[in-house]
Amino acid sequence: MSREIFLNDTTLRDGEQAAGVVFTLAEKLEIAESLAAAGVPEIEIGTPVMGAQEIEAIQAVIALRLPVRLTAWCRMTPKDLDAAIECGLTAVNLSLPASDIQLLAKLGLDKSGALETIERMVARAAAGGLFVAVGCEDASRADRHHLGRVIETAARAGASRIRLADTVGVLDPFSTFELVAHLAAQCPVEFEFHGHNDLGLAGANTLAAIRAGARHASVTVLGLGERAGNAALEEVAVAMAVLDGAHTGIELAALPDLACQVARAARRQTPAMKPIVGADVFSHETGTHVAGLLKDSLTYEALDPALVGRCRRIVIGKHSGATAIAHVLSESGRDLDPDLAAAMVARVRRKATEIKSSITAPQLIELYDWLCTEAAGRDLGIE
Ligand SMILES: CC(=O)SCCNC(=O)CCNC(=O)[C@H](O)C(C)(C)COP(=O)(O)OP(=O)(O)OC[C@H]1O[C@@H](n2cnc3c(N)ncnc32)[C@H](O)[C@@H]1OP(=O)(O)O
Ligand SMILES: O=C(O)CCC(=O)C(=O)O
User: Fold this and answer.
1) How far apart are CA 356 and CA 370, in angstroms?
2) Among candidate residues 266, 294, 316, the one where a domain is terminated
3) By C-alpha distance, which of 251, 77, 69 is closest to 160?
4) Number of domain units in the chain
5) Do 303 and 181 have their domain in common?
6) Model's pTM, two decimal places?
7) Taking residues 8-12, what's their average pLDDT?
8) What DSSP line would sit under 287-306, residue for residue?
9) Which residues are CB-contacts of 252 (< 8 A; sequence separation ≥ 6)?
10) Is 191 found in the same domain as 288?
11) ipTM for the complex?
12) Measured from the CB, is residue 50 less than 6 Å from ligand 1?
């Protein structure tokens, strides 16, 4: 992909909206520093109108003078905008629902009222010298004609970017591609996609949006965010690198540590099979896979673990074959006698079934030593 793509991180805003998640001031500062060090170009750091504590945190992040754009989420109201200005922010995401259901039920506003609000509030923010992104909340359920008019109105009033949000996560990659291609083509300013993961599609939808023309995408570390979360920074950045050869400026090898840091601060467990950063995603147990991998790692790996600062792990367990077992034994200087291979595989399988787990290297050595002792006993005629 030749276009430059910007992955804008909203861990500190949408990520912290995940139920029960609270970052301390110190954690916010550390996360912001790590995001910047990892090459994230823009961080949405909070919601100024939440009050003094949030404003203090936003000001503290600003004071770090990180080499990134800092933005904050604001409802499209003077009160929210003033709170952002009080923080000293120079960029804001001014958000207004785009769908009828949200406009009417939440705000009691019709479409023309929404357009008037956008015109008035964007002009006000832009006149104050702010970089203005307009967030179209629930855009994926909005009327397309209205979305076109939102884009036109916001751009005319001085917005520099439009953010299309799939707020309740109802798009799929096909509908995302089609919608973004349609809107980005008529958008005279930058275009951002903000996906949610309610159907497990946020990452895929984000890639589809980028391929359809979005130059910006919202992401969060680990996909932390409202309900099922957002598109995960680590998944989108790595998928773009591996599938499209695209460079987002993100330091891929920094992502696992960043994920640990955010998981700790969020007090969330990272699932072992979470792509890129989960404990087991570069671990291989299955016999045929390990036999293939030992010949050429491309047989069973989408990416080289080293790309993201990780290591491949061969695990011995219920599904191991003789090649894997011989390989692990060789690491402790033991040669698996070909005559004992089938018996060793059977013992490993029995042991793994018994303990319902994988087998550690010391356990494997113990099994092998017993087998050798038994075999030697048989050779000597001792039963
Ligand atoms: C999809 C998203 O994630 S968008 C991001 C949402 N972020 C947040 O909500 C941040 C955390 N929220 C809060 O701290 C609080 O809800 C606050 C400070 C924003 C508002 O607090 P309160 O004044 O107590 O309002 P409350 O939460 O009860 O209701 C939300 C109000 O915002 C209004 N509102 C919601 N979205 C918008 C919008 N985009 N533009 C203008 N007004 C809006 C609602 O109509 C409602 O107003 P009402 O009280 O007149 O009915
Ligand atoms: O307002 C926006 O830009 C996006 C807000 C959001 O987090 C969402 O709609 O999911």
Assistant:
1) 21
2) 266
3) 69
4) 2
5) no
6) 0.96
7) 98
8) HHHHHHHHH-GGGT-SS-GG
9) 237, 238, 241, 307, 308, 309
10) no
11) 0.98
12) yes
